[in-house]
Design brief:
Elements: H1 3-11, H2 18-29, H3 35-48, H4 52-64, E1 80-83, H5 92-101, E2 106-110, H6 120-124, H7 136-146, E3 148-152, H8 159-169, H9 177-190, E4 195-202, H10 211-227, E5 231-238, E6 246-247, H11 249-260, H12 266-282, H13 291-296, H14 299-310, E7 324-329, E8 334-339, H15 341-353, E9 367-370, E10 377-378, E11 383-389, H16 395-402, E12 406-409, E13 420-422
Parallel strand pairs: 1-4, 2-3, 4-5
Antiparallel strand pairs: 5-13, 6-9, 7-11, 8-10, 8-12, 9-11
Helix pairs in contact: 1-3, 2-4, 4-9, 5-12, 5-14, 7-14, 9-10, 15-16
Length: about 425
């Protein structure tokens, strides 16, 4: 077998055999297939697609490139979630301890911010002392103590994906449904969860801009999960405007703690509770403690505190705050008709909440607090949002990102997506 033969097969629009897929994924992981050959193959896949059999084979080959985690020693069932990424999407933070409080075990491997989208690990690292890197034994210990763990994937988990994802990031080959689906599902299946709920985001702030694309990605991932024996459900949810009222690392932790204390913005609460029900149902754990009750009676907050402490964090420590703030005010009176997720995410990124280069640190305090959401009445001159940055020099480029990203009219835009589009 050689790499050119595999590349030419896909370049010419033909189906890759199981042997070709197994060989090329393994040879790439071992460094036998070069980056330039894999990037040519990734582009051929992006342009010509893969059928269901090929995607399943590709996913299995990526899982086999590393180790598969095993939680069978836990006394209960595992269930997890994955979001395809968005702006202000902090749902994992309240959701993992909430599901733990209702009887599930949540072994969540998370990632860092990518472009204008935030990352769960960056958010949690704003808590003083909190550690993202745990050994498999360390993960098991936190799961046993708190019922939920949120940490970084170790090097042994789907190493083929780690290498391929970095290559796709710099070769214009991220936006391929077969490659995205196999990338996400290889990690989630290798993570060893028994059940999985996928939150596939749709809109300007998401990878999938249209409902049709999101539906195809969701269906592909659900099939991959089912093939691997993981009970998998997908929701399509709105990412045409930011989720909640905060965008940025420490700001989003504060909002998540508000949700765990029984408050928080309505959209974050609705999605957190809905996802908790789905995760429990997918694991066959419905009928236990009700998630709404666990938010009200403090048991979800207790699980959060146990989880943070077990990972070295101090849940009572003050969170980092940015030194400088700037208010953006409403240009007229009326209704906030639009608040574009991509524009707000880009502005938060430029304020320092995300990275410019992959080795850069993030600013924990940077980001945006929203004072109105689409559909809310506003008065001319009223604050619409507060920008937070460590350095006031960042405001100019953030304001440029917000140009055209919000509008005041008579009513909310008619094409605003419902929060939950489909299941
Ligand atoms: N997230 C992933 O893990 N992989 C992709 O390909 C895209 C988003």
């Amino acid at each position: 077998m050689d790499a050119i033969d595999v590349i030419v097969t896909k370049r010419d629009g033909r189906e890759l055999s199981a042997e070709q897929i197994d060989w090329v994924v393994d040879a790439y992981t071992r460094g036998v297939v070069a980056d330039e050959q894999m990037s040519a193959l990734a582009m051929a896949i992006l342009l010509n697609g893969m059928n269901r059999r090929e995607i399943a084979g590709w996913t299995q080959a990526m899982i086999r490139s590393g180790t598969r985690m095993d939680w069978s020693s836990l006394p209960g069932r595992t269930t997890d979630k994955h979001s395809t990424g968005g702006v202000g999407d902090k749902i994992t933070l309240p959701l993992a301890p909430l599901v733990a409080a209702c009887g599930g075990y949540v072994p969540q491997l998370s990632g860092r911010g990518l472009g204008h989208t935030g990352g769960t690990l960056d958010k949690l690292e704003s808590i003083p002392g909190w550690r993202a890197y745990l050994s498999p034994e360390g993960m098991l210990g936190v799961l046993g103590e708190a019922g939920a763990v949120i940490c970084a994937a170790g090097d042994g988990l789907a190493p083929a994906d780690k290498k391929l994802y970095a290559l796709r990031d710099v070769t214009g080959t991220v936006e391929s449904i077969p490659l995205i689906a196999s990338s996400i599902m290889s990690k989630k299946i290798a993570e060893g969860t028994g059940a999985l709920v996928l939150d596939v985001k749709v809109g300007s702030g998401a990878f999938m801009k249209t409902v049709e694309q999101a539906r195809e990605l969701a269906a592909t991932m659900v099939e991959l999960g089912a093939d691997a024996g993981v009970s998998t459900v997908a929701l399509l949810t709105a990412m045409d405007r930011p989720l909640g009222l905060t965008v940025g690392n420490a700001l989003e932790v504060t909002e998540s703690v508000e949700v765990l204390a029984g408050g928080g913005p309505a959209d974050v609460v609705e999605l957190t509770v809905l996802m908790a029900h789905e995760m429990l149902r997918a694991a066959g754990l419905s009928g236990g403690k009700d998630p709404e009750r666990a938010l009200k009676d403090g048991s979800a907050m207790d699980a959060w505190r146990r989880m943070i402490v077990a990972q070295g964090g101090d849940p009572d420590a003050p969170l980092p705050r940015a030194a400088e703030t700037l208010e953006v005010t409403a240009p007229a009176s009326g209704v906030l008709s639009r608040l574009d997720a991509y524009g707000v995410g880009l502005a938060a990124w430029r304020l320092g909440a995300g990275r410019e280069r992959k080795e850069d640190p993030v600013s924990f305090g940077a980001g945006i607090t929203l004072h109105a959401k689409p559909g809310d009445p506003v008065r001319e001159g009223q604050p619409l949002m507060t920008l937070h940055a460590d350095d006031a020099g960042r405001f100019e480029r953030a304001l440029a990102a917000l140009e055209g990203a919000y509008a005041v009219g008579e009513t909310a835009d008619a094409d605003l997506l419902p929060l939950v589009i489909d299941r």
